[in-house]
Amino acid sequence: MALRNCGALLHHGSYARRYASIGASTCPISKNIATATDGYLSRIHTTKSQQDMEKLGERLAKDRQAGDVLFLHGDLGCGKTCLARGFVRKLTGHTQLAVTSPTYLLVNTYGEASDLPPVYHVDLYRLDIVAEQDTVALGLTEAFERGITLVEWPERFDEDSVPKQRLDVKISYDEEDTEIRHVKLQPVGERWTQLFEKEA
């Protein structure tokens, strides 16, 4: 795992790691389903502003539990952090909480809501490849198991490091209007597929 720009980071072993922790969590841990399937379902959303993207994040935060992982795909500036902001604010109950992309910190942790698992906001943009041993060193293996995790630039994971249970959130620009975004939701694995089938 190589950093694209070293910056000022704390180090854990040979790997760069720093958490911006907000509060502490004493929440119960729920186990996610271990068996994965190849089933994909699609949902398409269209947003026309940052506020729309944040509201979509709020909707995705509903009924989340420990072990839930959301991969946020999309180009620079497409709205991944806006979606994460709405998501985190909804889960923590803090509507004015400052939620920024942890580009240099790698992981921001939010855990103020005592009745919820910790929320991890991960940004892998500055890393080249994140292998299985890197997920352990960065604390992501633990995050995937005991927290609710949002990952920007998940393309950095190698194949062996990708969680088998997750929701892929794919954000793209509209071809004609630069203010419009199209968001495609693809459930991966048994738990997410069942959730989408239930809501269909």
TrEMBL record:
Its main location: cytoplasm. One of its GO terms (molecular function) is metal ion binding. InterPro entries: P-loop_NTPase, T6A_TsaE. It is found in: Cytoplasm. SUPFAM superfamilies: P-loop containing nucleoside triphosphate hydrolases. It comes from the Eukaryota. Keywords: ATP-binding, Cytoplasm, Magnesium, Metal-binding, Nucleotide-binding, tRNA processing. It holds the Pfam family TsaE. The keyword Iron-sulfur does not apply. GO terms for cellular component: cytoplasm. The keyword RNA-binding does not apply. One of its GO terms (biological process) is tRNA processing. Belongs to the TsaE family. This is tRNA threonylcarbamoyladenosine biosynthesis protein TsaE. The lineage of its organism: Eukaryota, Sar, Stramenopiles, Oomycota, Peronosporomycetes.
